## 1
Amino acid sequence: MANSPQARKRARQAENRRQHNSAQRSAYRTALKKVTAAIESGNLDEAKASYAAAVPVLDRSAGRGLISKNTVARSKSRLNAQIRKLA
């Protein structure tokens, strides 16, 4: 357990960051799942709309360092290819 005031503050900050990052990661995963579900249902309009809503969430998570930029780019590319295959 942290004893010095600085260490206690760092522990508080780390816990706050952990909770915030967890929420952001959850939003990222939810956005991906919504697009995937729309693609699997075969609904092109819904898939395009959910993809358009997911792209800013994915980019934001990459910008904040939660997920690698390459991982986000790969995810967007694969989702877009699946949506084009629906058409």
## 2
Amino acid sequence: MFSNIVGQEKIISILRKEAATNSITNSMILYGNNYTGKLTTALEIARVINCQSDKSINCSCPSCIQLKNTEHPSIVLLSRRNHSEELKQLSNIYVKDKNEEIKHKINRLIKLIFLPLKDFIIENVFTETDKNQFSGIYEAINEILEKQAYTSSDLDTILKKINTLYGYYKNFNIPVNSIRNVIDWSYITRNNYKKVIIIDKIDYLEKSSSNILLKRLEEPSPDLYFILIAEKLSKIITTVRSRCRSYYFSDLNEESVNYILRKNYMIENEKYSSLADFFLMENACSTEKIKILTDKIINVLFNNNYTFTDLMLLTETLKEKDVILALMQTLPSEIEYTYKKYQNKNLVKLSDDIIGYITVELKNRIKRVGVFNCSPKNQFESILFSIKEMVMRYV
């Protein structure tokens, strides 16, 4: 068990001991940077918890088979993680040599993408029209998956439809109604398995969602497990953190990164320092590119050498919705971080209250995009120009 987790030996050692002594905690947080194996570990923990045999990685008990096929009735995943780059890489490999193992990985990944879109999870989250669109996308993809082999055109169709699906996600937060739906499910579901709820990006939950989750964490049940995934532990509200056992996932070393790329993606002759470098090398939403953009925006906003014209020219370059949403998510914490460190002497110095007000307003604009279906670009430009106007008053 846990032999599919690479580069996290310390955590795996702990989890193996806990599994062997039936002491896996009912509430846990897996935290660390992206591409460190948190979701893979969460799914493996869910498998081990429900295994009806020896818990080995190759176990073929009914529960393990169901989970490996992403069809387990007691496993719930709340996530808005974008898997399109991973799907794209697997598709490229399959086109070259029609490898059956890669085909299986493509099928499993697609099922994982649709897992957070179960009917009871998205009730009161999307409109009926949206739900019908999801059904149409799934049926079209499933028709391709039933083929003996996929053509290049088939895989292009799948990628386009998956990207269309992701377009319905207005922001990266898990909606409060999804949290509420899953909590209701946890009370009423009855079967022979232990229920496992995996919630991704728990550090981005709205306060109302965190409070709903907290109430359920305060009512533990022996047949219910929460596996919460986060990047930054400090961003999770203290009361939730205090009720969970935390496991830190360190960044993978280069040896682990390239082992994963060889094993899963048949990358033999290239070396990468991180999985992010591999998956996001052409992605405008890569962590590095978003960091460069946020630094540039902060400089234009708070440096009195830049004017409204400079800000207008900068915002005109921001056209992709995913990039704007990523910037809206990242900018509040980056502004707070910059002012705490205050490394840039050219920035206009503002009070903590004003910086707090600015970050709260940015977060409110994110909510408007998700709740009221407002244009991300319009909301983002509006708040940026408001911030610039505020800063100019203090020059």
## 3
Amino acid sequence: MSGEPGPGAKGRFERMLVASRLLIFVPVVFLLIDAAGSFVYGCIILVTTATDFVHEPNRPGGVLGRFLIVMDTYLVGATLMIAAFGFYALFIDGDPDGARSLMPSWLKMRDLEDLKARVVSMLILVAAITFVDVLVETHNELGVFYLGIGIAVLIVALTGFLRFGRQTHAPAISGSRTAARAAGRADDQGATDNGGDGDGDRERRGPRRR
């Protein structure tokens, strides 16, 4: 007796495995909650900053720094939302080119590379805004200089990751698509040849006798 599972058990396991994609709703929901919390926190900082500016209009530097913090929190919330949309598009939505998709075109993600590209791009923007915030608020020039070097190295590394990571995966994806198209053409050609052979055989045999 073979120890391998039967075709029925294999089919049930595969259906259960496909249904497990619904677990992605858990991180999607919590990412959206985190994004909403980041937006609310940014709104609170914005309201308090505007109130303080009305009472103390002689502190433009501090107010500008707090406005940059508001922008930073909004960008963090947007990054969390992009991650949530990406998880949903990759695990649940299926075909990103489907007519039923309600996602805007710039949020349609076909693979993990698309998700990483969008999230990393947002992280670069958040890092740049954070540096400007520190630059406005601090009076330690040497500390700002070292922080700028660190953020510059981080941005260069992330940019290289986006550029060369995409180029590394693109040939494999395009190669698989080319192979699939070639296989499809071969199947079509084979079907045409078989059809042509059948017609030739019928012509050689001639009409049937009744």
## 4
Amino acid sequence: MVRFYLSMVLLGFLFPCMAQQQSLLSTAGGFYQNSEISVSWSLGESVTETFGSGNYTVTQGFQQSKLNPVVIDEPKDPFSSAIDVFPNPTQGLVYINIKKEPALPPDLPDRFTLYNIQGKQLEQGILKEEQTMLDLGKYSGAVYYLRFFNLDTNTQTTVIIQKIN
């Protein structure tokens, strides 16, 4: 008797989970309708059943019932339009251009730090000129992080640089 009650309790918890509507989010699909039939389809749709009758074959799958897309905008980096790092990937020399224009934010980066992939600090420097040269020739081929920051406003951004041999 205890088994029966335990089974009923478990079914009571599992049934709402199994009864939830399944839906599919697809990047391609279509819809067709004429006077006799309407058809909607999605690319990558899972097939669950197929029925056939005379000239018609119907395959039942998951349909998108209520689609509420969510868009997540990435935050704008205040330094992204002010900093150019090139060439990337590089074999040695990297040039850092800081654009100083009236339309750009006044808190442009004034310092940089170079890190390896493990987070070890390799170099740091001050951006005095509009163009600064950084020599990666002494480092092995790998990915490096070049962090720019402004001490006064505590704003920062990071650029990934690839050094190739």
